[in-house]
Amino acid sequence: MTQAIARTAAGLITPADTPAAPHFALERPLVLATDLDGTFLGGSEAERAALYRWLHAVRERQSACLTLIFVTGRDLPFVRGLVRQQVAGVPVPRPDYVIGDVGTTIAGGSDIEPLPELEREIAARWRRGAPSDEHARSALRALLANEPGLREQDTPFRHRLSYWYEPATLSSGTLAKIRAAGYDGLLSADTFLDVLPRGVSKGPTLRQLIAHLRLAPDQVLVAGDTLNDLSLFETGLRGVAVGNAEAALLSRLRARPLPRTYRSPFPGAAGILDAVCHHGFATRPTRSATEA
Ligand SMILES: [Mg+2]
After folding, report:
1. What distance in Å separates the CA atoms of residue 192 and residue 185, rounded to the nearest whole number?
2. Whether this model's pTM surpasses 0.90
3. 146 alpha carbon to ligand 1 midpoint, in Å?
4. How far is the CA of 145 from the centre of ligand 1 (A)?
5. CA of 98 to the centre of ligand 1 (A)
């Protein structure tokens, strides 16, 4: 079978070492809660196809053992488009649930629609007494209308307001204003400013979802690659920072190590499969097994 050779800072890793083989069974239930860009969608085409093929095989043979949750900054139209795609002939697996818009959306079902009963707390924190999501957004938009260095993103988000910002121009007073209004301002990649309901981000929303679904925290594996995934790792759940994780995330993890967050040498999708074995959800396949 074709296997990509993973590259790490230490050099080349031989194909026999890569965790790309799709045919190994789960030894206990797995709830895979994964970021998309750079993580589930990261790594080479062969590495992504290997992960997706493995997930399909598990669903076919051990369907009760797998729950797949996407946890992303992307919105629902992006996810609906994604699951219609294929990678090297392998369909992108459909998630059971989606935590989208940086934790401010929870969706599920065959049409990947928002689940209002699960979003009630998020919506309440967004509205802060306003009669609708839109009223809350209008008030925030007015509050930030004259702040320097901001340009609003033209996507119709529901429980967030998002801007592109100029790092050289942004005023610290802008973040203070957001905070004083009862919201959190999240900066990322020197480019994006997300105004989010207070206390809402990927990690807390995942915690809420797994409690609602009565899933055992010990079955959960979180995966990510950038700073907006830090809240996933801070849940204390088993985790993996994939091999291509950004420097800003790694320096935060170095400054305050999280013992259950594994740093995989493998990028994106290959890092996820590596972590499935590292955390004991499956046994790493031997070379003869990978060539079977
Ligand atoms: Mg990412």
Report:
1. 10
2. no
3. 31
4. 29
5. 15
Q: How far is the CA of 159 from the centre of ligand 1 (A)?
A: 20
Cα of 27 to ligand 1 centre, how many Å?
28
How far apart are alpha carbons 118 and 116 in whole angstroms? 5
Res 190: pLDDT: 79
One-letter amino acid for residue 4 of the chain: A
In angstroms, the CA 54 to CA 50 distance is 6
Q: How far does residue 220's CA lie from ligand 1's centre (Å)? A: 18
> What is the per-residue pLDDT across 253-282, written as a single tens digit (0 to 9) for each?
999 989 999 999 999 999 999 999 999 999
Distance 38 CA to ligand 1 centre (A): 5
In CATH terms, the superfamily for domain 22-119+200-290 is HAD superfamily/HAD-like (3.40.50.1000)
> Where exactly are the structural domains of the chain?
22-119+200-290, 123-197
Instruction: Read off the pLDDT of residues 159-199 as tens digits, 9 standing for 90 and up.
Output: 999 999 999 999 999 999 999 999 999 887 778 899 999 99
Q: Do domains 22-119+200-290 and 123-197 have the same CATH topology?
A: no
Q: How far is the CA of 142 from the centre of ligand 1 (A)?
A: 30
pLDDT digits (tens, 9 = 90+) for 62-75: 989 999 999 999 99
What is the CATH architecture assignment of 123-197? Alpha-Beta Complex (3.90)
Question: How far is ligand 1, taken at its centre, from the CA of residue 201, in Å?
Answer: 14
**Residue 18 pLDDT more than 60?**
no
User: How big is the CA angle at 245 (ends 281 and 17), to the nearest 5 degrees?
Assistant: 50
| pLDDT, tens only, 51-62 | 999 999 999 999
Measured CA to CA in angstroms, residue 70 lies from 24, 34, 75, 103 at distances of 22, 5, 11, 10
Q: Which of 90, 93, 89 is nearest to 40 (CA)?
A: 93
